[in-house]
Amino acid sequence: MTPPQPNPVLLRLALLAPGIALCIAVTLVSLGLQHLEEGGFEHPYVEALVIAILLGMALRTLWEPSPRWRPGIAFSAKQLLEVAVMLLGASISFAAILASGPVLLAAIVATVVVTIAASFTISRVLGLSVRMSILIACGNAICGNSAIAAVAPVIGAGSDDVASSISFTAILGVLMVLGLPLLIPLLGLGAGQYGILAGLTVYAVPQVLAATVPAGLAATQIGTLVKLVRVLMLGPVVVGLSLLAPRLGGPQGDPAEPRRFDPFKLVPWFILGFLALAACRSLGLVPDLAVGPITRAAGLLTVVSMAALGLGVDVRVIGRVGGRVTAAVTLSLVLLLLISLGLIHLLRLG
C-alpha cells in the first residue's frame, strides 16, 4: 500500500512559517515602539515601517539567518508586499482627485512629474543605479517610504537598494517635519500657502499633520488634502513603471531577454488588482466601512515586508553607497522645496 503523500500546501506553509513568524515578531516590536512615540509626542515622527527595517537590519548585523528562516523572509519581502500594494487600491477614489480643483490639481501633478524627472537625473549623475534612482525619485516626489515600498517590487529593486533609499529618506522626512515650520516667518507664508507647501513636500500623511499643526487648522486641512491627492499619483506612476520595467534589464543593467508579447504579463498581477480595487472604490462597490480595515491591513503587511527587507540587508553595502544616496535625497528634497514654492507664488495658490 502506497503511503499517503504529504499535502504540498502544508509543506509550503511549514517551509515559510519560521521566516514569516520572525518578520511578524519584528513588526510587533516596531508597532509597539510607534505606539510609545504616539503616547509621548502625539505623532509618530519615526513610523513603524522605518523602525521595522532598521530593527531588521540591526538583527541581520548580529545574526545571519540560516536556510530555515530564508524562505519565509523572502516570501514576506516580495509576495506580502505585492498584496499590500494591491490592497491600497481600495483607498483610491477618482472623485477625490476632481474635488481638489483644476489649478491645484495641475500644480500637484506638475510637481510630482518634474520632481521625479529631476530627482532621477540627480541620482544618475551621482552614479547611483537606475533602480536606486527610481526609488529615490518616487519616494521624494510622492510619499516617501510608502512610494518606495510600492515601486520596489514593480521594478525588481533589491533589498539593499530599498533599505538604503528608505533609511535616508526617513531621516530627511523627520528633519522636514521639524524644520519646515521655520519657513513660515522667514518667507511670510500664509496658512493656506504653508499648508500647500507642506502637502507638496512632506513625505507621509502623519508627518504632514505634525508639520502643519503649528500653523493652525486651516493649514492642516489644506495640507492634508494636497498630500492625499499627491499620494493618488502613486497609482499612475506605479502602472507606468510596470510598463517600463522590462526595459530595465537585469540587476547589473544587462538588457532584458527578448520575449513574446503577452498582454496578461505586461502588467504585474498586483497592479491589475490595484486598478480593479480603485475602480470598485470609485464606483461605490467598496463601502466606506471597509476602506479603513483594508488600508490598515495593507499598512500592516507593508511593515512586515519592510522587516523582511531589513533582515535581508547587508549593512556594508549601504555603507558603500551612503554618501551618494544622502546627497541624492538631499538635493532632490531641496529641489522639491524650490519647485513647490515657485508654483505657489506663480499660480498664487493658497
UniProtKB/TrEMBL annotation:
* Compartments, as annotated in UniProt: Cell membrane
Which keywords does UniProt give here? Cell membrane, Membrane, Transmembrane, Transmembrane helix
Q: Where are the transmembrane segments?
A: 9-33, 45-63, 75-97, 103-122, 134-156, 162-184, 196-219, 225-245, 266-284, 290-313, 325-347
Q: How does it sit in the bilayer?
A: Multi-pass membrane protein
Question: What's the main place this protein lives?
Answer: membrane
Classify the source by domain of life: Bacteria
Family recorded in the similarity comment? Belongs to the UPF0324 family.
Q: What is this protein called?
A: Sulfate exporter family transporter
Give the species this sequence originates from: Methylobacterium jeotgali
